[in-house]
Amino acid sequence: MTTVQLIMLLHLQMMFIFMPYITTMQRQVADSSAPYPQESPLQIHHHHHLGRYNRDVAVRNHPLSNVLPSAEVTVTDLAGTANHAVIGKGAPGDVTPTRVVIDTSVLIADPACLHSMGDADVVIPLTVIEELDGLKGRSDDVGRAARTALRTIEELRQRHGGSLAVPVPLGEGSLRIEINGVQREALVEHGLDPAKADNRIIGAALGQSRQAPTMMVSNDAALRIKAAHLGLSATEHQPTGGAREIRQTGWHVIDTDTQIIDDLYRDGVVGVDEATHQADYTPTGIELAFSVDEPPLVRENEFVVVRAGSQSALARRRGTEFHLLPHAPPQPWGLHPRNKEQRFAIDLLLDPDVSVIALDGRAGTGKTILAIAAALEQVVEEQRYERVAIYRPLVPVGRADVGFLPGGLDEKLDPWMSAVHDAVVALTDRRSSGDARQLIDELTQRQKLSLESVTFLRGRSLQQQMVVIDEAQNLEPTTLRTILTRVGDGTKVVFTGDTSQIDAPYLGETNNALAVLTNAFTGQPCFGHITLQSCERSSVASLAAELL
Prior knowledge:
Blueprint: H1 3-32, E1 42-45, H2 52-60, E2 72-76, E3 82-87, E4 99-102, H3 104-109, E5 121-125, H4 126-135, H5 141-159, E6 168-170, E7 173-178, H6 184-189, H7 197-209, E8 214-217, H8 221-229, E9 233-235, E10 251-255, H9 258-267, E11 269-271, H10 272-276, E12 303-308, E13 311-318, E14 321-324, H11 340-349, E15 356-361, H12 367-381, E16 387-392, H13 409-413, H14 418-427, H15 433-445, E17 449-453, E18 465-469, H16 477-484, E19 492-497, H17 513-521, E20 527-532, H18 539-547
Parallel strand pairs: 4-5, 4-8, 5-7, 8-9, 10-12, 15-19, 15-20, 16-17, 16-18, 18-19
Antiparallel strand pairs: 1-3, 2-3, 6-7, 11-14, 12-13, 13-14
Helix pairs in contact: 4-5, 4-7, 11-12, 12-14, 14-15, 16-17
């Protein structure tokens, strides 16, 4: 037998030996290519083109996918891929109420937020109560807000039988305090320390997401980032009116025809409907964010720049009419407005019918000097008010506290009131610091001017005064209510501040007193608001405000 014949014989013998195993493997491969069962209890709706089997395995292995039947959750993996998972079939149309987990920063910024959650099931982790307990001893706005939030929760507890361990009715939704359910394993798996309070709050929210759709609400950006990384929906709390997609400036540009401008200059007034070609409306229920392709919604005491070709006019809405601003702008205490926003602000400041004003704007736009000039003009020259009362919050820049200051109350407040002194310097004829100090001392002795801290406002009643609240962006919304409830007959209150420069903790651009006031009062006949945009202090200040 030759070598070739021997090799062929061995090959045939191997085929007979291994043929059963090859046939079995072929059948298994054929079976594995069969369609995935359509009646699987786990139905995944994915936006990417992956195999059904791979998608199901990916969600099964996700640490947040173990939820109860009929619960719909948003799962976000480490690569940032969003998967919308529906567990179980459930009855058609069944919707599980959303659970809202709120953290400490929300209750500090808005202690009354529990009553504005709609039909959501509000869950407060026990860690939040511990943090509020640690903050309640502070003597500032944060401590006052913590005490208010704890009293609100305590009232709800007593009203519903003495315990919030189980959900109790809260408006159209419910409220409960979560004691257990912190998903420590998920926290550790993602490198988060369960001993930290913020991480325990996230862990409690993860526990809620295993039972129902859950939303994490926090004013802490880092907490929201971590919560979203672990698959939770996270959002910022927007008090009193919610967020606005377009920041309010207090004035609009309207393009119209030349006849409208001619009528405005001839009669001094023109109808809102006639000028804007839109139906009149009331401030209640206005859609705050509008399309740029639609006519702007001009509210009460807001201003317009009416244009028609090369013609233009400045006007202010009062009721159902636009009133033309005078050609020669008023100059309170000799201060001449340098741009249209400053002119709009002066028009509001000198109007006795507008009793609450908010002036927002970056550094150097003239907020404080406009308010003080208008106040001095109406107190000293026109004698419309008995005195000027200037209040400032005692919040240091950069949170670097200066500690205890020597001297009496006036000496202690003097460093905080330096900005007021600087504004008076700019209003003197020679721009002299000595002249400004002499004027302040003289007005103080005549009881025409007072420089005070917001700390001493509680219990006061402000009658026939022009009150200027400087740096209002550093005030809590609860302090805003305290100030406005002090206002008596014949008193005008002006809030000035820069919502982009906030030195107080727990506050942001949307939940500080100035922003909340603007959102809540816009459209009221007694309120006016202007955002100053152009820096007029100096070229260096303008460059720094824009580039830094």
